[in-house]
């Protein structure tokens, strides 16, 4: 969930500046003058600046929340029977999205002998019979326990479609 916080915009003040003058006739100098009417910033300009800051903050929050997920392709673009990537790391609670790409049907099954102690592989796996049959279909899982998890695609495990994720 993205949270937007208020943003403060500082507007510089030009009061108190003094104009310089050339007092020595033999030296090169510049004369700086200030306008006779004070500079006025309208409320519309200030609200516009605040609006831009709020939009920028919201956009960065959305991008940051999207960064908390990793996509893993099921089947390579070249038609290979592989998870792409097949070895990666995530933080605890980070979402992993397995997306059907090529060479389907596929599924994602975590090996019960190669998950951290106390993790029920059945609760984080698709069933052996449940398959993703169309391009773009997804299966998502969030892993909380630190450690290494091995997973495979049951129809293609014999062809080497296996992977490993480390939660650190």
Please state roughly what percent of the residues sit in beta strands, choosing from under 5%, 5-15%, 15-25%, 25-35%, 35-45% or over 45%: 15-25%
Number of strands: 8
Oligomer: single chain
Mean pLDDT: 77
Biggest sheet strand order reads: 2-1-4-6
Q: What string gives the helices and strands in order?
A: HEEEEEHEEE
Structural class: alpha/beta
Distance between the amino and carboxyl termini: 22 Å
Number of distinct helices: 2
Helix content: 10-25%
Stretches with pLDDT under 50, minimum 5 residues: 1-14, 19-30, 58-66
Radius of gyration: 30 Å
**General shape:** globular
Largest β-sheet summary: 4 strands, mixed
Report on the structure:
The chain is an alpha/beta fold and 168 residues long. Helix content is 17%, strand content 22%. It contains two helices and eight strands; from the N terminus they run αβββββαβββ. A hairpin with an 8-residue loop joins strand 1 (69-74) and strand 2. The longest helix has 24 residues, at 43-66. The radius of gyration is 30 Å and the shape is globular. Residues 1-14, 19-30 and 58-66 have low confidence and may be disordered.
SSE inventory with pairings:
Layout: H1 43-66, E1 69-74, E2 83-84, E3 87-90, E4 95-100, E5 109-110, H2 121-124, E6 138-142, E7 147-152, E8 162-167
Parallel strand pairs: 1-4, 3-8
Antiparallel strand pairs: 1-2, 4-6, 5-7, 7-8
Question: Any key phrases for this structure?
Answer:
168 residues; 2 helices; 8 strands; globular; disordered N terminus
């Amino acid at each position: 969930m993205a949270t937007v916080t208020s943003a403060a915009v500082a507007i510089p003040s030009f009061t108190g500046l003094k104009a310089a003058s050339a007092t020595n006739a033999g030296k090169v100098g510049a004369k700086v003058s200030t306008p006779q009417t004070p500079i006025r910033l309208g409320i519309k300009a200030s609200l516009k600046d605040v609006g831009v800051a709020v939009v920028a903050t919201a956009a960065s929050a959305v991008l940051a929340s999207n960064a908390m997920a990793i996509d893993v392709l099921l089947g390579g673009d070249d038609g290979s029977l592989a998870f792409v990537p097949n070895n990666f790391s995530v933080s605890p609670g980070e979402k992993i999205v397995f997306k059907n790409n090529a060479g389907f049907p596929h599924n994602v099954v975590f090996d019960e002998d190669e998950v951290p102690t106390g993790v029920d592989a059945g609760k984080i796996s698709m069933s052996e019979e449940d398959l993703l049959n169309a391009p773009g279909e997804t299966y998502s899982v969030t892993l909380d326990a630190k450690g290494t998890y091995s997973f495979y695609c049951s129809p293609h495990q014999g062809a080497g479609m296996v992977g490993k994720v480390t939660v650190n």
